[in-house]
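Worked Example 4.2. Consider the chain below.
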Amino acid sequence: MKEQELIPHLFRTEYSKIVAVICNRFGFDQIALAEDIASDTFLTAVQTWPYKGLPQNPAAWLYQVAKNKAKNHLQRNSIFNSRVTPQLNNDGAVLAVTDIDLSAQNIQDSQLQMMFAICHPSIPAEAQIGLALRILCGFGIEEIATAFLTNKETINKRLFRAREKLRLQNVQLAFPPAAEINKRLETVLTTLYLLFSEGYYSESHDSVLREDLCLEAMRLTYLLLENKYSNQPKVNALLSLMCFHASRFKARADSQGELILYEDQDEKLWNAALITKAAMYLREASQGNHISTYHLEASIAYWHTIKADTPEKWSAILQLYNQLLQLTYSPMAALNRTYALSKVHGKPEAIMAAEKLGLTNNRFYYVLLGELYSGIDKIKATDNFKKALAITKTIAEKQAIQKKIDKL
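Applying the procedure from the previous section yields the following structure tokens:
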């Protein structure tokens, strides 16, 4: 990896580890300090490496510098007196408290505990995702602002309020007690699902897909499977869903970055190994009696790995959407269910069902109506595609919709 690419790569992979471990040692209320130490560590690397050359083990160098910065801060801060002094020996030497445990197991445990702390139900979902991107995924403030289509000032305020809320709630960096694990796990899974969705349906003007967001969501979900308390069927189901979707990443955009819709994708570009993994996680998810929304969505995603347009496929998908909507309603599920309805019972019935939804502020609603009216009423099809075009934000989606209009 080239030198100019190394520090951004390490920031993405090591920043969150440093923050999580420092917080684990000195308390979640010191999260701002942990972020400052981690950021300052990478600033030191930027200032040092171009002149002194790359260290033999760049990650180990970062960990050592972070340890030293944490120790220096403690020595000149009131935290030293309140938390470290009681652990000094008679001659005043600092004991192992200043040594940060950066073993693989402690890093994993710390990140898992951080995940449960960040995904606390006391803060809004968008704040949970923002904190997850910043603290667990190593995203910069500008990157987070881009992901949310807002500015850095808004993101900074949002994250500050979230941190303050967690501090005032005295949220601890610890794995939840057994009695709370299921409730807290639901919030964690919701955050990871939204994080993956943020990348999969990217609102960025220059990208159809934010793979980095999706891959981070998958990595964090896998961490949950590594822990015996959070390795539950619904977690396997969520990772299965993510893997099924991720298997089609390379087929979703062409060389110019334009969106390729499902029916036009080259299935030879689908990742067969990921599909096999997804199927394995789905089998693991089948244990137990509870069916979550992730089970149903993963099953729908499985059927989409079968490209053939068969009645069996679309009947199965329609039934799964019926079950999904019974569990929880969402506009996207309702729209996708209507598309499946058109495949099973024909476009006229699906048009009636779609128009009853009345999702007039949703671009996918108009795209669906455009598709359903295609071949039935050219004027209405064009009109709906134009309505979708007017409220679509991304360049890639605008191009895809315009192609449909031109084809009509």
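Residues 225 and 363 are 36 Å apart (CA to CA). Confidence is low (pLDDT under 50) at residues 89-97. Compare this with Example 4.1 before moving on.
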